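User: Just a sanity check before I run the rest of the batch. Below are the structure tokens for the first item. I only need the designed sequence back.
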């Protein structure tokens, strides 16, 4: 389970939920993938970049399908 409040860009993606409420890792990966156009890549923290890389390896077989 991942707490969105610990990751600034993820926290912004879950604007309609409580960011302190944990979300399953698979759901977080799909949130990033579906909403990648809203992620400000220049403001990703190292911790959040690493999270995205790990989620992409685990749930995307090394690829994130973004538009």
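Assistant: Here's the designed sequence for the first item:
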């Amino acid at each position: 389970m991942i707490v969105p409040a610990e990751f600034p860009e993820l926290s912004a993606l879950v604007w309609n939920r409580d960011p302190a409420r944990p979300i399953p890792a698979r759901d977080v990966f799909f949130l990033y993938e579906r909403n990648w156009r809203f992620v400000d890549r220049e403001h990703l923290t190292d911790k959040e970049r690493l999270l995205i890389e790990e989620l992409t390896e685990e749930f995307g077989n090394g690829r994130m399908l973004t538009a």
